[in-house]
Model the fold of this input.
Amino acid sequence: MSERISIHAGRPNLSRTALLVHTADPNRDWEEARLINAALDLHADDPAFGYRFIADGLNAGVTRVAGERRIWRLCSASGILSVIHRKRVGDRQAGPPVHDDLLERNFTATTRDTRWVTDITEQPTAEGKLYLCAIKDLHSNRIVGHSIDGRTKASCAVAALAHAVALRSPSGTVVHADRGSQFRSRTFVSALHANGLHGSMGRVGACGDNAAMELFFALLQKNVLNRKRWETRQELRLAIITWIERTYHRRTRQKALGELAPIEFETINNMALAA
Done:
């Protein structure tokens, strides 16, 4: 079956096509065709939507339509991808892990500063590339530390960690990263130990291990990085910091936080703990 089945009518619309994953159950084939159709419609409305945004859109009603993993499978099979592909740091090589995987893909936290995730992205300017290392608290999705540099050395990751430690004064926090050379470096590992933090490292080629940072970087790409051609590193640096502190932290309401922004979520939780 190659025809795309419209969810807006009772019979197939042969003028539009989509890949349908065959199963042994015709009813399931029909259901998955409907999901693919709906996903294509959402993606057409905003090509920046990846499978997480599409899953949120499909499940926005009273009744849950499908799980995020199923939406990911159907989007992958149908080639429904966000036009925003985060620019990976080119000279990062995946090597042997220096930590065990302490999160095991459980990217949630019941209290603040117990689990952090970190990663690095890059953006070109007329002066050359600019690199951003960000650290996110999995409890509130707040960016608790960041560093912006013109070079992608371990010092960029160490500076982001120092920023997070100064802001949050953590104790025993798990800091999860991929196997990029910056996070495997002796200086970064030493900084973790010196501050009483526990390193955690994902597997090679396991894109899901980075998923907790992908949404933040995708939002940054859409709202800042892709908006214009950036002439200077300083211009882009100020734009990134302004967006993080003024928009992402205070105005970006997130479904995972009960439609609250990160700082709003933290404030309410802090008040509840103090009560």
Notes: The two ends are 59 Å apart (CA to CA). Residues 9 and 24 are 24 Å apart (CA to CA). DSSP finds nine helices and five strands in the chain. The beta strands are 115-125, 128-137, 143-149, 174-177, 198-201.
